[in-house]
Write a structure and sequence with these properties.
The protein is α/β, with parallel strands linked by helices. The chain has a single domain, classed as 3-Layer(aba) Sandwich (Rossmann fold). Helix content is about 40%, strand content about 15%. Strands 3-2-1-4-5-6-9 form a seven-stranded parallel sheet, sandwiched between helices. A two-stranded antiparallel ribbon has the order 7-8. Helix 1 crosses helix 7 and helix 3 runs parallel beside helix 4. The protein starts with 9 loop residues before the first strand and ends in a 10-residue tail after the last strand. This is NAD(P)-dependent dehydrogenase (Short-subunit alcohol dehydrogenase family). Keywords: Oxidoreductase. It comes from Arthrobacter stackebrandtii.
Length: about 250
């Protein structure tokens, strides 16, 4: 699906041990990318890699600046450069309104979803500025919550709105260096986070009702990320939304 042949290109995928990150990493490997897999759990990263010779697993806590810097050094040491960062690591956080959430839970969600994304983007930009030929692409995984929140999702929604600002800032500041940045906002892939929201049994809606929501295969989200990643350097997608058909997003409220 990529527009530019992937052979020899290098992608760093955070949160690669499960869900969307795993699907993107495996799809990229199948298309000929060299993929550096980042995540907290080494065993899950190795499961994603599946012994593929183009995969390098680097256990990484994205909230740890030193660990993130080490991740990108390892990427360059193993593969020579970084062409794409899929900035994907995240957590849903507490299902609570602003008056219920504890400071500890707030800080934990912000640390992973926002600070972690910033640290990975910063390391990617430094790497892309220094390499020849200069440039690269960052794809931030936002969420449809970057547009419209679910009930009881204060911490998650705030961080995903902030990812939009991060995306636009990187895109603007990266232009002189051939670095582009886009955001994919995904709704209701069939992954483990959907179990957290109980979409299969009945997710809480704005009117207080529970509604069984449709999902779509995570492989389709991965194909879309790979399309964004494979565009020529002369093109970029600033923001793209993909959701399960018929899910309560348009008209949510």
């Amino acid at each position: 699906m990529s527009e530019v042949p992937a052979s020899g290109k290098v992608m760093v995928v955070t949160g690669a041990g499960s869900g969307i990150g795993r699907a993107v990493a495996q799809s990229a490997l199948a298309e000929g990318w060299r993929v550096v897999l980042a995540g907290r759990r080494g065993a899950e990263l190795l499961a994603t890699a599946g012994g593929h010779p183009g995969a390098v697993a680097v256990p990484t806590d994205v909230t740890d600046e030193a660990a993130v810097d080490a991740l990108f050094r390892r990427a360059v040491e193993s593969s020579g450069r970084v062409d794409v960062l899929f900035n994907n690591a995240g957590m849903f956080g507490p299902a609570q309104s602003v008056d219920e959430i504890s400071l500890a839970d707030w800080n934990a969600t912000v640390a992973v979803n926002l600070t972690g994304a910033m640290l990975c983007a910063a390391a990617a930009v430094r790497t892309m500025k220094s390499q020849q030929p200069q440039g690269g692409r960052i794809i931030n995984n936002g969420s449809i919550s970057a547009h419209s929140p679910r009930p009881k999702s204060t911490a998650y929604t705030v961080t995903k709105h902030a990812i939009t600002g991060l995306t636009k800032s990187i895109e603007l500041d990266g232009r002189p260096f051939g670095i582009s940045c886009g955001q994919i906002d995904i709704g209701n892939t069939a992954t483990s986070i959907m179990s957290t929201l109980d979409v299969a049994r009945g997710a809480l809606q704005a009117n207080g009702e529970l509604l069984v929501e449709p999902t779509f295969p995570v492989e389709e989200a991965a194909r879309t990320v790979l399309f964004m990643a494979g565009l020529p350097a002369s093109a970029t997608i600033g923001q793209l939304t993909i959701t399960a058909a018929g899910m309560p997003f348009v008209g949510r409220g």
